[in-house]
Amino acid sequence: MTDCDEIPADHPRHDSLVTRHRIEAGVDAGITSRQGLIAQGRGEAFDYLLGEETIPSADRAARAAAATLLAAEHPVLSVNGNVAALVPEAMVQLAETVEADLAINLFNRTEKRMAAIESHLKAHGATAVKGRKADARIPGLSHERAKVDADGIKAADVVLVPLEDGDRAQALSEMGKTEIVIDLNPLSRSAQVAAIPIIDNILRAVPRITDHARDLAEAGPEAIEQARTDFDAKDALAAAEARIRDGL
User: In which band, very low, low, confident or very high, does the pLDDT at 12 lie, cut at 50, 70 and 90?
Assistant: First the structure.
């Protein structure tokens, strides 16, 4: 298996190769499910069509996401197996920057896998990780992703849900939570129901949200509010779809 550090930064497929390696390593470590390999391949196809770059509408979405997390009373960053494998350190840094909780939430949930992801996040700097108590449920879901912590996702007003299943994204939206989704498919149900859909590769999106959060925190409340109100989800989805369909 190729080590990420051995992939030249100027390789035209650098991000793609790094992503594949991290997912493979995640499966080997018991963090990522085998189904996560399929999901990653699907996302990579959309990234290729987007030009493997952060388009302007995605950057505006990342800025709106940063502002929304900063303005939240109880922001939570949801982590599944692919997220843990791909961007553990970046998620920890974002959580620290916007003072959010990290919460594990899995479709294929086992205690062994929950423990592995918690340990992995802590190895990358997390001091506390929620999700293992599972003392509350998301209404309307019958599978394991319904299980959440009462003081975690259940209590959140703003939730970042990267690489999300559409049914849970819709369920969270129906609970009245402000939902930020990172998804490479602008036509997915997750992106369609999100208050802030970020159509971008998670490797680029999470650090970008953190950078915007730091800038906005320094700029002050007016800049934060403007970043939130200036964003239009429908415009962002339309721009991403136009890039995919027409290269525009």
Answer: low
User: To 5 degrees, how large is the angle CA 47–CA 7–CA 42?
Assistant: 25
Tokens of 16: 């793609």
Q: How far is CA 125 from CA 92, 96, 120, 199, 214, in A?
A: 6, 10, 9, 27, 19
Which strand ranges, in their side-by-side order, compose the sheet holding 75-79? 101-104, 75-79, 158-162, 178-182, 196-198
Q: What is the pLDDT of residues 142-158, one digit of tens each?
A: 778 889 999 999 999 99
CA–CA separation, 131 and 175 (whole Å): 18
Mean pLDDT on 216-232: 97
**Closest residue by Cα to residue 176 from 142, 153, 192:** 153
* pLDDT digit string, tens, across residues 25-70: 888 888 887 776 667 767 888 998 999 899 999 999 999 999 999 9
* DSSP track, 60-96: HHHHHHHHHHHH-SSEEEEE-HHHHHH-HHHHHHHHH
Instruction: At 108, list the tokens.
Output: 């294929």
Q: Provide the β-strand partners of residue 181.
A: 161, 197
